[in-house]
Design brief:
4 helices
């Protein structure tokens, strides 16, 4: 019984640590830079990193209302796609 509880506790701790690492702004920038390395990417590396960080801020850091932040993010992505 103690081993099962320890295993569950360890699993929860590992999932929480993994989410914390993935939700960090630095991780977002590094992953965006890695994805945009190819010429098949529709966005330049710096612009993709900015869009990824804006999306992360919208989803992870919370929002006051629903429509204003969503519209601002959508406008930013559409503007970047038009360039």
């Amino acid at each position: 019984m103690l081993a099962a509880m320890a295993a569950v506790g360890l699993a929860v701790a590992l999932v929480a640590a993994g989410f914390g690492a993935c939700a960090a702004p630095v991780t977002t920038a590094v992953l965006a830079g890695a994805v945009s390395a190819g010429e098949g990417s529709p966005y330049p590396a710096d612009e993709l990193a900015e869009l990824a960080q804006a999306t992360r801020a919208y989803t992870v850091e919370g929002r006051e209302g629903l429509s204003a932040p969503r519209e601002a993010l959508a406008e930013r992505v559409v503007d970047a796609a038009r360039r």
